[in-house]
Write a structure and sequence with these properties.
Structural class: alpha+beta
CATH architecture: Roll
Helix content: 25-40%
Radius of gyration: 15 Å
Distance between the termini: 44 Å
Largest sheet: 6 strands, mixed
Strand content: over 45%
CATH topology: Nuclear Transport Factor 2, Chain: A
Mean pLDDT: 96
Strand order of the largest sheet: 2-1-6-5-4-3
Number of helices: 3
Length: 133
């Protein structure tokens, strides 16, 4: 059985890989961190996505509108709640250059519930908010 420290480190590693996929605008790589089996929902700002497919489609479309993006992790906290469940919160700086020439800089935060499934740690629920600078 994993110790709570092991769980926290495993989830942190998965989230760092997710951020890397975000920075590459790689929707297929990014989406593999969201559970296929236990997905509950995602909230992005005030938008609610009750299914994994709706969420993946929305983010795929966001990526298509962006020339480039950079998410820089500032703080990452993971708390193991059980041997197969963890709560993660984070703070990032985000910079996005849209294809229309607009630039967006923001402070960004995530709250995620991760579950260890047969294929590894996956996101069951996420909430993200941001404040444009």
């Amino acid at each position: 059985m994993d110790t709570y420290t092991d769980i926290e480190n495993e989830v942190k590693d998965q989230f760092n890989q997710l951020v890397s996929a975000l920075n590459q605008k790689n929707a297929s790589e990014w989406s593999k961190y969201y559970s296929n089996d236990g997905f509950l929902s995602t909230i992005a700002g005030t938008d609610y996505y009750p299914t994994r497919n709706l969420w993946v489609d929305a983010v795929t479309n966001y990526f298509l509108m962006r020339e480039r993006q950079h998410v820089e992790l500032i703080e990452l906290r993971v708390t193991a709640l059980a041997p197969n469940i963890a709560l993660m919160t984070s703070e990032e700086k985000s910079e996005i250059k849209l294809k229309d020439g607009n630039n967006i800089k923001s402070k960004h935060v995530f709250t995620m519930i991760w579950k260890k499934e047969s294929t590894g740690w996956k996101i069951l629920h996420s909430h993200e908010s941001w404040l444009d600078e």
